[in-house]
Known about the structure:
The chain is an alpha/beta fold. It has five helices and seven strands; from the N terminus they run αβαβαββαβαββ.
Amino acid sequence: MDFLYSILIALLVVVIFALISYFRVKKAVTTLNQEQFIEGYRKAQLIDVREAKDFAAGHILGARNIPQTQLRQRYKEIRADKPVYLYDQNGARSGRVALFLKKKGYNQLFQLQGGFKQWTGKIKSKS
């Protein structure tokens, strides 16, 4: 019986952590569908937070690559006074990047719903 309680408590902790994370991300970044994203990203800084090899394989036209793994060293390349449009492969990483940027004083943060995987607009690739 103690084992069952331990599992239930662990599960509850995981669910609570997931909910807190979800609401923190929701507060830090505005999620946009593709049409809304297209309307604004040309007047903003478009940042692809995927790794360089994924970026090279294909990315949204006009995007800069600042991988999440390099963000702590490179975030100052992103201007805090202009809107920041973020995307990744499926929408999970860009939320964590937005939380980091929010803590650093960035306020105009937007992410692409569903990530690059769902993108049907113009792309550029090196191959």
